[in-house]
Amino acid sequence: MARNIFEKSRTILQKASQLIENTMIRPLNRKVSTQIDNQQASSVGIHPAAFELASWQKSVLSPREAWIESLKAENSEEKRIQLLNPTVFAHYPRIDLLFKNVRWQKLYKHVSYANAPVRHEISRSLKKPWPQKGMGKARHGDRRSPIWIGGAKAHGPRGPKTYYHELSFMVRLKGLSTALSMKLAQDDLHIVENLDIDVDDPKAFEEVLDSRLWGPSVLFVDDTDFMPERISLVTDKIPHYNLMPVYGLNVYSMLKHTTLVLTVDAVKRIEERMLYHLNRTNMPNV
Amino acid sequence: MTSSGVDKALSLVRNLPRISFNNLRDSVGKRKPRERCRGRYGGKTHGCGQKGSEQRQAYMRLGHGGGQNPFYMRFSKEPYYKGWHLQREYLPISLHRIQMLIDTGRLNPEEPIDVTQICNTKLFKLDPRKKQYGFQITDEGADCFDAKINLEVQYAPEHVIAAVEKNGGIITTAFYDAMSLQAAVDPEAFFNRGVPIPKRMLPPHDALVQYSDPKQRGYLADPDKIAEERFI
Fold first, then answer.
1. What is the CA radius of gyration of chain B?
2. Given CB atoms, is A282 within the 8 Å cutoff of chain B?
């Protein structure tokens, strides 16, 4: 019985790693095989059903698929499929991680310049307003006190205050994969072969994208920061179409733009980087 | 076919409004506004009581008892934790775990596997400051262990030694004192300190027997006697 349990866990691991390998970026003509090798199992002396992956495990590990489209007006009839790694593109929709990331992105740069002078900083005389006794008035030492109009603020904001903080590495990572997964799930993610276009007029380009219902605002992401000339000139005129290299990808931008367009190179780079960071064991102090 | 929770969640999200800044929320109960203490709600004396040593923050030490014989002084001591500060802890790793690490490529069976290699996988937290003196191997998974390795740990029982040597491997038990262990656990951090490499001290008296015993493959034992034991 004990032997069976350990053999089972070893063989499950082997099958899982096979499936994970299949979800990595591969030549697109090959089919995804989720068939488990029963012959191997039976040679070890275990019933195939004992180590078969549960259906929920298969669904978690199976890759997602997206059409590879083109930014040019005319679409060719043959369309290829891009396989997307489920760890990156089918992450559980953690809305709270998205919230944390957006809040962090907005707040870490923020400096509050609010400063309320304390009573010794108010420029008013230190002279005792009236004698201590005999006046029938309340006793006061100076006109700078917080209870005086024009006096100090007792517990007010003090000086420039930074809201700089660092969000945990894993929260940032999983925020990115949540954002990508949400975009894919809500049909706001499109994969294109490259960022080549065939129109020079910004209005014409807008019409092309509007006809496909590609959202008011679009974020184009490529692996390089040296974008093709045509699309650079066209999107320069349109404020709601933006170009971005992969290293600039962030949760705030992904949520700000309604549609996210990734090139095939960008997808490959994102997956490679994300999976590296999610699985590394030599994590420095991040 | 049953779908996983992730699939169900993503298919739910598919039919909901587009995610944007006005849809986001932090996890429940995370952010609460600070309660101000004003009036009868935490105000006036602000939890400090009325006059006396308490409001004047002149407290007596914990357990004082007001002058009578304190509780902690009424009873004699018992030797429950005698020698506790000298006890050594060895983190257990099963043979099954080692096999998994080799299968997943986290440990290289071609190279000797010792404390440094196991700590380099970053899957185990060995803290010499917590009186943890190394690793011990447990015999869980000894039945299906089939890796030929050169293993050096701090303790291994008979079954484990038999399992490792059955596949043609070598197992040794070696002692690292606290200073040397700190260097071994994270060599990079140690060398960054610029401190000379410490000399590895001999084991304490109560461990000398174990590490000189060929039956336990001690590093101080006679190699010929170890060879004899391997033969047996």
1. 29
2. yes
Over residues B15-60, the pLDDT tens digits come to: 999 999 999 999 887 778 888 899 999 999 999 999 998 899 999 9
Residues of A in contact with B11 (CB under 8 A): 185
Q: Is there a contact between A258 and A281 (Cβ–Cβ < 8 Å)?
A: no
Q: Which residue of B has its CA nearest to A2?
A: B141
Determine contact: A187 vs chain B, CB below 8 A. yes
String of DSSP letters for A163-215: ------HHHHHHHHHHHHHHHHHTT-EEEES-S--S---HHHHHHHHHHTT--
- Average pLDDT of the segment spanning A127-148: 97
Please judge whether B6 and A282 are an interchain contact, meaning their C-beta atoms are less than 8 angstroms apart.
no
Residue B64: other Cβ atoms inside 10 A: 10
Strand-strand pairing, B150-153 and B170-173: parallel
Provide the shortest C-alpha distance from residue B124 to chain A (in Å).
11
Per-residue pLDDT band for A286 (boundaries 50, 70, 90) equals low
Of residues A92, A187, A255, nearest to B21 (C-beta): A255
Tell if the pTM clears 0.90, that is, is over it.
no
